[in-house]
Structures are given as C-alpha cells and as structure tokens.
Write a structure and sequence with these properties.
CATH superfamily of the largest domain in chain A: NAD(P)-binding Rossmann-like Domain
Largest sheet of chain A: 6 strands, parallel
Oligomer: homodimer
Number of strands of chain A: 9
Shape of chain A: elongated
Mean pLDDT of chain A: 96
Helix content of chain A: 40-55%
Number of domains of chain A: 2
CATH class of the largest domain in chain A: Alpha Beta
Amino acid sequence: MQAPFSSVAVFGPGLLGGSIARSIREHMPNCDLRLWARRTEPLEMAKQMGITEKTYTDPIDAARGAELIILATPIAIFEDLSRRMLPAIDRSAIVTDVGSVKAYVHRTTGDTLTERGRIFIGSHPMAGTEKQGLEHSSATLLQGATVALTNPHRAAANQVERLAAFWQALGCSTYLMDPTNHDQTVARISHMPHILAALCARGAVAGKTPMKDLQRLAASGFRDTTRVCEGPANMWADILWENDVAVRSVLADCIRDLHHLSDLLENQDRQGVLKWLEEARAARKEVRQS
Amino acid sequence: MQAPFSSVAVFGPGLLGGSIARSIREHMPNCDLRLWARRTEPLEMAKQMGITEKTYTDPIDAARGAELIILATPIAIFEDLSRRMLPAIDRSAIVTDVGSVKAYVHRTTGDTLTERGRIFIGSHPMAGTEKQGLEHSSATLLQGATVALTNPHRAAANQVERLAAFWQALGCSTYLMDPTNHDQTVARISHMPHILAALCARGAVAGKTPMKDLQRLAASGFRDTTRVCEGPANMWADILWENDVAVRSVLADCIRDLHHLSDLLENQDRQGVLKWLEEARAARKEVRQS
C-alpha cells in the first residue's frame, strides 16, 4: 500500500510524538520523517535510536515541504509554533495536532491556520501512559488506539480520509467527532479518571494516618486506581485548564454523587449502598463492552 | 522448617479463602487442610483442583481438632458461624479471619469467642483482585502481600507469633496494628480507591454523552482507574457499611478537595491547578516509596 504521506514532520518528540515517529519509521520505512524540538537533547536521542537523521530546532526548516505536520508539543505552544512556521507550510499540506482537547485548539491554532489558507484537522489519539519523554515512547503505544478526528474548519472529505488513512496505517482506528462533543466525552472518560486518581493519592495522605502504615497496607487497588496521576502535571494542568467548563461540570457530578453515597451510609441504607456499587460495576462493563 | 500448624480449617473457599488453601497445599504439603462451605459446589471444585479431599458443609465437623481456623466468608456471617462451631473449637486453637475491617470483627466475633475462652486474633491480607470465586484463586495471590494482624483481645505473644509465622510461611509479611488505626488506614488506602473507581465508572455514564462515544474513547486510563470497582458489590457494601465512620470521614475529605479543585479552575488559578496535580504525584510516590 502507498503511504498516505511521503513526508511527515513531527513537532515535539515526547512520549506521544516519539511513539508516532517510531511507528512511522516502522510502518512507513520510506517516509521522509522530520523531527522538531526546541532543545537538541531529544533530537540527539532520536538519532541514536535510529528514528531519523532529519532533526531540526528551526520550525521553518522542519515544516518546509512536509505533506503532513503533526503538533505534539504542549498545547499551549501550538499557536505560536504555527505562526512561526506558517511561511513554510504548503497550502496542500495537512496540519494536525494530538492535543487532548479540541474546541480550544480549533478556536486558536485552527483559526490562525485556516484564516491564512492552510488546512487544519484535529486528531486525538487515545493512547498514553503515566511515563514521559522519548525514552518511554514505543511504536506499540498506538496499536489498537482510537484516534478522534475533528473537522469544524471543514477541510475537504478527501483530506480527512487521507489523514484517517495515515492513522490507520499506524494501527489505529479513527472516529470523526464534533469538537465540543469530543471535549465533553474526554472530560468524562479521560480527564475525570485522571482527577480521581489524583484525588485518591491526595486523600491517602490527607488524614492523620501515619505514612508508614499507608505504605505497609497499600496494595494493587491503590496502585492501579492512582496510576495515571503520575502523568506529567504540567500537561494535565493545561488539559484541565483548556477544558475547564466540561471538567467543572463533571466535578459537580462527582461531588453530588459522593454526597449521595455519604448520605446512604449515614442513613444506614445498606440496599442503597449495594445499588450504588452495582450501578458502578454495570457502568464499567457497559463502557468497556465486556 | 516445621509448619506452624499441623491442621488448618478454611471457612469460605472464595477468591481469598481459596488462594489461602492453595497456598497451604503448596507450602505445607503435610498440613491436614479442611474446607467448609455452605454449598457443595465450591467443595467439589476444590476436590477436582486437588486442594484437599476434606470438605465439609457442617462447621462442627470442619472445626473439630483444627489448630488454626480461618474465617474467609462474608464478614456478616463470621459471628453466627463462630457460634455454631463453638463446641468444636479447641481452647488451644487459634481462630482468625481475613476480613477487610477489624474493629467491627473484634467487637462482634472476637468478643463472642474470647468471652467463651477461645483465642481470636484478627488478620487482614492486603491482597485481592476484581475477580471472584475459587476458580480465580491462586497460590501466588498472597506472595509478597502484607497481612495486618490485630490483637485487642490480648492473645499471648507466642500465639501471635505462631499466626505470624503461618502467614510468613505463605510468603506474606506481617504487621501488628491497633484495629481502629487499621480501619482508618484501609479507609484511605483501600476503601477510598474502591469508592473513587466506582465514582469514576458512575460518572462516565452520568452525563449526556452518548454511550458509543464513551466506548470509542475509553482507553487505559479509564480501564485502570476503574478496575477495582468490578469487585463483588455485596462484599464491598459490607466493607463500607462496617467501616462507615472512617469511610464517611474520607468522603468528606474527597468532597472538600474536589470543591477546592473546582474553585481553582473557576478562579483561573493555573498555578494552583498545577500544584494540586503535583501534590498528587508526590503523594503517590511517597506512599508507593518509588
């Protein structure tokens, strides 16, 4: 099969950007793959790992002639970066991103690029770990992941199909969504798990329980429920920030539901507690289709 | 090494009781191992699995002559079961349990037994999965687990040491605790993870987000953060119920902390959100000593 793009520039070879680059190297060996980073260290590492020799700290050089440009830096710098490389972005090139929120990205970066005649389509690969950096990236991270695609700027259908074909060639499935619906969905299925994992870790140490007792009794339940909160705090602060309306709505739901459980316990409503727990099991099974 | 007990009766061969029985079979091959269950099905399964031929539905028969009696049924039936087997419990035998709360167990079963001249020491192996039943048990479940021991009824030191030696022979480490301190600690390190996992699953489906969107975008963060809430709802309703004072105190902490995060987002305090997330990471690292 012909690769959908003969040249791809990945901006920000961290965990996700690095995994995309390694996956391109594996699935599209003839692709002209470029990496851009602000610092040279990750670029040197990428060379040593055999990902590509084409590395850049100048965004213009990295973007020039690329058929696909992937923004994988922190979301907060997407727009500035896009402005800087604008003269080098071909009008037939597709620019996408891998940010965890989409309405904000389209409102900023998407507007900036499309108002200047460039093509911008949003992507959000639902893949990650609590680890950070190129050193933890892997070509398998994307295997089987869903990539949400967002196209409020109405790029042509064949462009969306071309971008979808790219993700599919890396082993992903794609799913076209409205950006606002995307953001509300990830608030519940991704941002809320992160917040509750963090809440769980914070709550463990919030009482008067001696640390050595917590350490001795912590088992797999604590480990797994809190795992994701080891993810990069800076990135997650951006995500919560940029999706704050949807996130606050979910927080309000959580607070209401915890009050409900507390009332059930206070009112000695054992059947109510059981129902609360059974509804949770059923919800998880339904979401995970198991 | 001589096994600490030459005969052990396990009451309730479910996930944990079954794992203990299989571990005894492996580590103490000469032990006279008995299993009691209310129904014959798990006992037949235990025979087929080669765990033991000595299976009983009469508690008196199972307990008679046993040097160690382990209560691994639902906590709610410990006391009734103890009363029924009381005449068969030797005065030199040790009775223990594997319940997830300890103050309640000592206040009920512990009092009942010790007032009648029997020895009762509490145990809580910090090991489990979201699975249920003997069919999911395994000898490795206990490997490396901490077992909290509670002795408010002041059994003699050599009896506590003998029980500790038993758990250690199965690959566990032991940790003597005050029952109230135990219950407050597990409220934070075990019961709270379960509640927040359940809250996360409930919250996913609580909004107007279409189920198919949640299903498509659910990834490893949702999977791991919610994993434990697939555990048996009945058992967990008992646990929350029997530890309700400590649990409600933790719920109040969670509600307060979610309000705090919501306020930080509403007040556009990005540094505050970052600090909230960084404190969570630090808390998890400290508890897990990593």
